[in-house]
Amino acid sequence: MNLPRTTLAAVLVEQKKPLQIIEIGLPTELGIGQVMVELAYSGICGSQLGEIDGVKGPDAWLPHLLGHEGSGKVLAIGPGVKYVAPGDTVVLHWKPSQGIEATPAKYSWGDKVVNAGWVTTFNKHAVVAENRLTKIDGSADLQTAALYGCAITTGLGLIDNRAELRLGESVVVFGSGGIGLNIVQAAHLAGASQIVAIDRFDNRLELSRTYGATTVINSTTQDAWAELNRIFAKQKLDIFIDNTGNPDIISKGYELISARGRVLLVGVPAKGQQASLYTLPLHFGKTIVGTHGGEAIPQTDIPRYMNLFESRKIDLRPLISEIQKLDQINQMISNMRDGSSAGRCLIRL
């Protein structure tokens, strides 16, 4: 088949500025382990907002492509690829899986090079490393399939692989956006007795209730810590999960948990920020751990979580707040920032 030579993409050209919607040139040939995918849908994750804002500092790779969760079909494969083939339906994800970790592709924009990582999804056609793809059934719903690239695997994986949640334990989820909502849903499925969801926006909190939150707290209109101390005055909290990366929230969550409680960190503080902890309780059973994509293994966990969806053990449709074309991406990002969108925004490519 004749492969496309150019594609439409949303490109980060300058930090703290809107993405530019431009046509870029695709690589003329695929290298070892590279796969060309035609995207159907891409999710927008809070990580991309952090990249735009420069929370980890200056970006040395501008201009570059963004996006790390999506769904689509394989158009062509490079030498050495054996786990996907042309015509396959795939989930695109940021966590490495089986296959080759190929050299990231280079795209062109006039006389400029547009950089990319091992996976990008804010472009209609993407050249992706084989190990950032997981083959799924061709009849799968491509809208929800896109969310398995990050939001679902991180949220469900955190509870499934990392939290060691036991039946009847209590959980606080601070930050109830796309990943937080999946954490709430997974904690409910795993048998948590008490799930407290905290966020700044009521629409996210209402969605949290539908996913199993027993208590919700709006941190802008309520004193979240006074409420938490009241709720857990008699029986201390077992698990505190932070999705914000706010050092003060991390420190207070650490103080709130029981003597053998666990703090799990999903959010990452901005560069230079530090949380303050009294470490003595760590010697006697408290734990605080970082998490990395819910410790999910894409080639095994994505099919398992898809089985939960197909058997109606979990519901993913309410997670999708809006679906727009690529040229509306900056508006969707704005909607995520101001809370207009409760869950995940999807780009229809």
UniProtKB/TrEMBL annotation:
It comes from the Bacteria. Its cofactor is Zn(2+). Residues 178-310 form the Alcohol dehydrogenase-like C-terminal domain. Keywords: Metal-binding, Oxidoreductase, Zinc. This is S-(Hydroxymethyl)glutathione dehydrogenase/alcohol dehydrogenase. Signal peptide: none annotated. Belongs to the zinc-containing alcohol dehydrogenase family. SUPFAM superfamilies: GroES-like (SSF50129), NAD(P)-binding Rossmann-fold domains (SSF51735). Residues 32-136 form the Alcohol dehydrogenase-like N-terminal domain. InterPro entries: ADH-like_C, ADH-like_N, ADH_Zn_CS, GroES-like_sf, NAD(P)-bd_dom_sf. One of its GO terms (molecular function) is oxidoreductase activity.
